[in-house]
């Protein structure tokens, strides 16, 4: 048994032709955030603090669909959401509909620790953020030119999407990807376990491009996109509606709890057999320090490391990279 950490920057239809200028900054961000998480675990930081720290870093990175890089609703607004959960205590917190909060994940943590509730959304969540003095900015800060372009393309094709080749609804004609080849921008998540088996999970997102205002995805829903108990911690990504229907994160934990199967078996079953192809990816760690990062999409931005010296950063299945310098 030892510590382990895994993070993701979204799963979806990520073309192998993704140009280096789009791929590199995301891989660099994964590597940097993995290092931060590894250092924190090595210095005995509790897993709950580690996942919050790593997700904050990913939220601050404009290359991912969370915090600064959040995609836009059909009204051109931003509505960010996040959830965090501690495995041992099953304490959790979640937020939705944020328009000014710089780090949604930290507000979710405050909901967990400072309120009798689990989930705050929209005006109430924003008021709570102001009360708690968390960093807020004008919502224009989150509305980047790239995301205005993404919304424009999604509207032209009349679809709601996590990418530009996989319509979620409104069977639309296939549109060519963005001229810069940037076809994927992903939700972020992190799971961690320390050498005592304490587990935690955190996920944060801007949701789907061109989503309806008010739409809530899987990310903040405990048991769908985010879950942790004494067996494992799970953070999912992909098409939120499919992940909610499949109660993906909780089902992984339930299989371990009630069927006694390994993390690998549980995650493989949920991703390969229980959720429609092309809809989901997840990162998970078990109390024993095992790691699983399966997906049934084309790819998933992901990274992991464990105490035994193993680490990897990858997008597709063919590009597995061993990196030893994160330890
Ligand atoms: N699951 C997120 C959502 O549906 C999107 C993603 O994972 O990229 O809101």
TrEMBL record:
Keywords associated with the record? Autocatalytic cleavage, Hydrolase, Protease
> Which residues of this protein are catalytic?
187
Listed under catalytic activity are:
Cleavage of a beta-linked Asp residue from the N-terminus of a polypeptide
Q: At which residues is there a site annotated Cleavage? A: 186-187
Q: Which residues bind substrate?
A: 215-218, 237-240
The broad enzyme category this protein falls into is hydrolase
Protein's GO biological process: proteolysis
GO terms, molecular function: asparaginase activity; beta-aspartyl-peptidase activity
Q: Which InterPro entries match?
A: Ntn_hydrolases_N (IPR029055), Peptidase_T2 (IPR000246)
Report the domain of life of the source organism. Answer: Eukaryota
**Entry EC no(s):** 3.4.19.5
Q: How does it assemble?
A: Heterotetramer of two alpha and two beta chains arranged as a dimer of alpha/beta heterodimers.
Query: What protein name does the entry list?
Result: beta-aspartyl-peptidase
């Amino acid at each position: 048994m030892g510590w382990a950490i895994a993070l993701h920057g979204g799963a979806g239809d990520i073309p192998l032709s993704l140009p280096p200028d789009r791929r590199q900054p995301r891989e660099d961000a994964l590597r940097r955030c993995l290092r931060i998480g590894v250092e924190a675990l090595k210095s005995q930081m509790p897993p709950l603090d580690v996942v919050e720290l790593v997700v904050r870093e990913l939220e601050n990175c404009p290359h991912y669909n969370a915090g600064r890089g959040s995609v836009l609703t059909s009204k051109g607004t931003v509505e960010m959401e996040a959830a965090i959960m501690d495995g041992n205590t099953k304490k959790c917190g979640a937020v939705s509909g944020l328009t000014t909060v710089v780090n949604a994940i930290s507000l979710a943590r405050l909901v967990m620790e400072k309120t009798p509730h689990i989930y705050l959304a929209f005006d109430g969540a924003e008021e709570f953020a102001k009360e708690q003095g968390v960093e807020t900015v004008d919502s224009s800060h989150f509305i980047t030119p790239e995301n205005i372009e993404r919304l424009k393309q999604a509207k032209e094709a009349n679809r709601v999407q996590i990418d530009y080749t996989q319509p979620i609804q409104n069977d639309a004609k296939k549109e060519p990807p963005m001229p810069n080849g940037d076809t994927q921008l992903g939700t972020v998540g992190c799971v961690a376990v320390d050498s005592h088996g304490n587990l935690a999970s955190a996920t944060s997102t801007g949701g789907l491009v061109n989503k309806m205002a008010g739409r809530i995805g899987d990310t903040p829903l405990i048991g769908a996109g985010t879950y942790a108990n004494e067996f494992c911690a799970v953070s999912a990504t992909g098409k939120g509606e499919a992940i909610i229907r499949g109660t993906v994160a909780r089902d992984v934990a339930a299989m371990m709890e009630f069927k006694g199967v390994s993390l690998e078996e549980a995650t493989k079953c949920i991703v390969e057999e229980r959720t429609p192809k092309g809809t989901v990816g997840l990162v998970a760690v078990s109390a024993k320090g095992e790691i699983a990062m399966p997906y049934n999409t084309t790819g998933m931005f992901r990274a992991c490391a464990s105490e035994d010296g193993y680490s990897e950063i990858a997008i597709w299945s063919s590009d597995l990279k061993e990196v030893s310098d994160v330890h």
